Amino acid sequence: MTKLNIQAIRRDFPTLHQEIYGFPLAYLDNAATSQKPVQVIDAVADFYREDNANVHRGVHQLSQRATDSYEGARAKVCRFLNADSDEEIVFVRGATEAINLVAHSFVRPMLKAGDEVLISHIEHHANIVPWQMLCDQVGAKLVVIPMTESGELDLSGFDDLLTSKTKIMAVGQVSNALGTVNPVKMMTEKAHAKGIPVLIDGAQAVPHMPADVKDLDCDFYVFSGHKMFAPTGIGALYGKQALLDEMAPWQGGGDMILSVSFEKTQYNALPYKFEAGTPNISGAIGLGAAIDYMQSIGIEAIASYEHELLSYATERVNKLDGIRVIGTAEHKASVLSFVIEGVHPHDVGTIFDQQGVAIRAGHHCAQPVMQFFGIPATARASFAFYNTMEEVDALVDSISKVQELFA
Predict the structure, then answer these.
(1) Same structural domain for residues 238 and 160?
(2) Number of separate domains in the chain
(3) Is 135 assigned a catalytic role?
(4) Are 230 and 287 in contact (CB under 8 A)?
């Protein structure tokens, strides 16, 4: 068993220490958003207490300190992803904004009628809708890698989907609805062999496993901070420097320029030409603190412990009658989606809440997945390294409570 001091870790998360309807809170909705440790909360609060000023523009001490902290967070993201340079890290609101940025600034200029964008059947809506909108605008085609009954990608015909018409492949590293870990490194190698650039959505991966953009050799990598113990409204886009250099800015405004006249605007250098306006300074600082916190525990240790949690939960739930687990891939990360026979998942979520167990009930912004399995929604328990085996037991007890009420 992985050696983590879970009780010491839990003391770092204030939200976990409360009762819901008289029950101790078991927070199992981490795939939607994770709780924040005091180290992150304090980093954000300290910025507002002591250093609150705009970045890059001031000569006074507060602005210089704010800039140092903001750019220090960028350096932490760079090291966290094993990127080559801070210039390859663009701060954004989250994975959704990063995908839209790549869609409009990188893909749109080269996309024409008849071209194709390749995604997979198990994507989050954030990695479907921007590409769908783009294809609709120019008459291109959205091509979808199919999935199997186990919730894995069906790669039997993958090579045939990679054609001269494919202008980008955009795939998630981990499915938020099913927990499936996709073989993105192999898929990237195959796409690159045919000259196709690759974007990887790492939003559900970075909280649970190491992220190494050099090893993956992806052209773009995106993630959101709020799923990895950082504030909401902050995330990052990694892009290979040569590609980012070629891309035009997506939004115009302050700080993304070097000079402006009514005749011509000269854009700023990387990464600032993609960061128009006052950024989420406190969010970036909080993201840096979250990275420090995760690394102090150890990403490999986190992955190992969460695997134990998921294995224990899966084993216990599979022993129950009247339960269908949705997503049984061989390689999964921290997500257990299920349906209870005869009970709508929204009712399941409501009854769970009355037992102090917080889960997600719905389509999880992955409606094509639900359509594939012929269901409207699932109940989804998703784990983080601060969860315990006792909270898994509370989950199973809540399933029994639901079944008793609907017997």
Answers:
(1) yes
(2) 2
(3) no
(4) yes
